[in-house]
Amino acid sequence: MALQTIPPRIRWAVEMMDIQPNDSILEIGCGSGAAAELICEKLETGKLFAIDRSESGVDRTKRRCARCIEAGKLTVRQIDLATLRVPVKRLNKVFAFNVNLFWVRDCADEVALLHERLVPGGAVYLFYEATQPELVPTIIKKASAALVAGGFRVSVVDQKAPPVVGLIGRR
Hints:
Elements lengths: L7 H9 L7 E5 L5 H9 L4 E6 L2 H10 L1 H5 L3 E5 L12 E7 L3 H4 L3 H10 E12 L6 H14 L3 E7 L4 E7 L1
Parallel strand pairs: 1-2, 1-4, 2-3, 4-5
Antiparallel strand pairs: 5-7, 6-7
InterPro entries: Methyltransf_25 (IPR041698), SAM-dependent_MTases_sf (IPR029063)
Protein name: Methyltransferase domain-containing protein
């Protein structure tokens, strides 16, 4: 099978998370599986639990990352965060790229779930590809407010090319 390319924006976001070999990670919105592929490369005893509301996203991730699933590093499920019962007791990291949940509606229940499941010092990483730069201030304001209200300390990072903004919420 030909290697699929991984967009630079995804590479940058995964590098920002500083994945450790034993991390327990939740990816919200796994889409094509590009981030899952990169994350699993860095895991040894750690695990990635990837979810997506879309059946096609789940299917694409399962196909792309079949070896990771077979190796026991990756579990993929079709579900949304609101109805998720995280199968691991404690997470080190939560990752989402271009998942608008955190800035388009009230997500207090979802943020509370993440806060409950993250270990002290764990972090939520929310990344947005800034294809519409005029939306970035609103995204930062709303997503930051949701995380802060849920008990997280928030910092903002960005990259100029390709343009990506990230929010890191630490527990």
